[in-house]
Write a structure and sequence with these properties.
- Two copies of one chain form a homodimer.
- Chain A is α+β, with helices and mostly antiparallel strands.
- Helices cover 35% and strands 36% of the residues of chain A.
- The first copy, chain A, is built from two helices and three strands, in the order E-H-E-H-E.
- At the A-B interface, strand 1, helix 1, strand 2 and helix 2 of A face strand 1, helix 1, strand 2 and helix 2 of B.
- Chains A, B: It catalyses: N(2)-formyl-N(1)-(5-phospho-beta-D-ribosyl)glycinamide + L-glutamine + ATP + H2O = 2-formamido-N(1)-(5-O-phospho-beta-D-ribosyl)acetamidine + L-glutamate + ADP + phosphate + H(+).
Chain lengths: 80, 80
């Protein structure tokens, strides 16, 4: 089973990488871009067969290791 | 309108970051993890009102700047 974690900076946390990308996109004349936020995707291939259990374990992994709870939020999605 | 770009390494491209995370998860006794792939999420806030146009423009942005076409694939999703 494949579980996807999407980890983003919390609202209000400054995202310098996003600012830099926004600036670069404007230089390439993508004027419609107003804001850019950058985060991480982590796809986990697990042997678990129950999606509830897989989701719960992925949440544990995010809390223990993969996400910094002070400045990041995360979402868990079961892909397959 | 918010458009999400998910940029992942192509299948077959070595992902050392994923390997390191896999190893760390096993050290925390998450034995069910078999493989880990890491990618980037880029959320774009754009003034475009048509989702087709927003998707097309985000694809252009990915092709011109945000994704490295040699080693990365990307998906575009309209969030709101």
């Amino acid at each position: 089973m494949k579980v996807r974690l999407i980890i983003m900076l919390k609202q209000g946390v400054l995202d310098p990488q996003g600012k830099a990308i926004n600036h670069a996109l404007h230089n390439l004349s993508f004027e419609e871009v107003q804001d850019v936020r950058v985060g991480r995707v982590i796809d986990l291939e697990v042997t678990e067969t129950s999606s509830e259990k897989a989701k719960a374990r992925a949440t544990e992994m995010a809390q223990q290791l993969l996400a910094n709870g002070v400045i990041e939020d995360f979402q868990v999605e079961v892909l397959t």
